[in-house]
Write a structure and sequence with these properties.
The protein has 323 residues and is mainly alpha-helical. The protein has two domains: 147 residues, no CATH class; 134 residues, no CATH class. Helices cover 85% and strands 0% of the residues. The chain has twelve helices and no strands. Helix 3 runs antiparallel to helix 5 and helix 3 packs across helix 9. The longest helix has 54 residues. The protein is globular and about 80 Å long.
């Protein structure tokens, strides 16, 4: 038994090391697989309504292209706008830093030496902005490959479901277990997407009311970060709050911060539990550890895929133990 456990541990370490080395390729495959599983119910629903399989697939792919193109257009415009307005933000931050130093001097606190350090130099934000833009461009540059993989996965899965439905192919034990895993991951993704959309809409309304630049970008990021457990909320609130601080001052930044906290608290503590129930049987400790491990293995995309991958590992572990 001990040898069996040691063997499994060795296999896990080898697989994790291989995934880390091949992370750029693995990320594309895993992202395509996750999106394909999420889109499959749309095709099945259309087929149940009498729509031919090929037409159902085309409709689903058209919706995917339309939504992705819309998001890409909004993000591209926002990123270009941020790059163009960066000198203005830099000047405003410099003025804000000067005001803070003068205010603290009036009450007998001298922090001029500390704030004059390169660590607090607003020019360093250019590096962050550049990395942010590069990350978005890199993500969408790989979308063609992801899209092709999604097409192939949807075609194969739809064809397999069609054959099983009409009795042309028998359901194996392996397929049943994979289908159960896919349903569990799909349920988690759909609930996270729905609650993340509610959060994004609430944040968007707040940002529009406050007149913060690029509200659609920050709302989309809050939706995207809703898939990252534990730290996703903090990642989503920092950019718009910091931008509000640069644009309008401390009061507006605090309004954005408090507003995001209230919206997130309502969704996470009231709305999400009603849908999630007991389906996600993971403790906060397991969630946080899985976030660290998958981010270390796969990079930033690992943070988004952490929970689905952890669910998959636990399901496979259960199958191995039962056998």
């Amino acid at each position: 038994m001990k040898l069996h456990v040691l063997q499994i541990s060795a296999y896990i370490i080898i697989i994790a090391a291989a995934m880390k080395l091949a992370a750029p390729v693995v990320n594309i495959i895993l992202l395509a697989l996750l999106l394909a599983m999420s889109l499959m119910p749309v095709i099945l629903w259309l087929m149940k309504k009498g729509v031919p399989k090929a037409v159902s697939l085309l409709i689903t792919l058209f919706l995917l292209i339309f939504v992705t193109g819309l998001i890409a257009s909004v993000l591209s415009a926002a990123v270009i706008g941020i790059a163009q307005k960066y000198p203005v933000y830099e000047q405003q931050l410099q003025m804000l830093k000067t005001d803070v130093i003068q205010f603290l001097l009036k009450i007998g606190i001298d922090v001029s030496d500390m704030l004059s350090s390169q660590l607090y130099n607003p020019e360093n934000l250019m590096v962050i902005v550049a990395d942010f833009i590069a990350g978005i461009i890199s993500t969408f540059s790989n979308f063609i490959v992801v899209f092709l993989l999604i097409i192939f996965l949807l075609i194969d899965t739809a064809d397999l479901r069609y054959k099983i439905h009409w009795g042309e192919k028998k359901i194996s034990d392996g397929w049943e277990k994979f289908a159960e895993l896919a349903d569990e991951i799909r349920k988690y993704v759909s609930i996270s997407a729905f609650t993340g959309l509610i959060t994004a809409i609430g944040n968007l309304i707040l940002l529009l009311i406050m007149g913060i630049d690029f509200p659609f970008l920050w709302a989309f990021l809050s939706f995207l970060f809703s898939f990252i457990p534990s730290i996703g909320f903090a990642l989503s609130v920092i950019p718009p709050a910091f931008l509000a601080l640069a644009e309008s001052g401390m009061t507006e930044a605090m309004v954005i911060l408090v507003g995001f906290i209230i919206i997130n608290a309502v969704v996470e503590n009231i709305i999400k539990p009603k849908f999630m129930g007991e389906e996600l049987n993971l403790s906060l400790f397991v969630i946080f550890v899985s976030l660290i491990i998958w981010t270390w293995i796969l990079g930033s995309i690992g943070a988004i895929l952490a929970i689905p991958l952890t669910i998959s590992v636990m399901k496979v572990r259960g199958i191995i133990v039962s056998e």
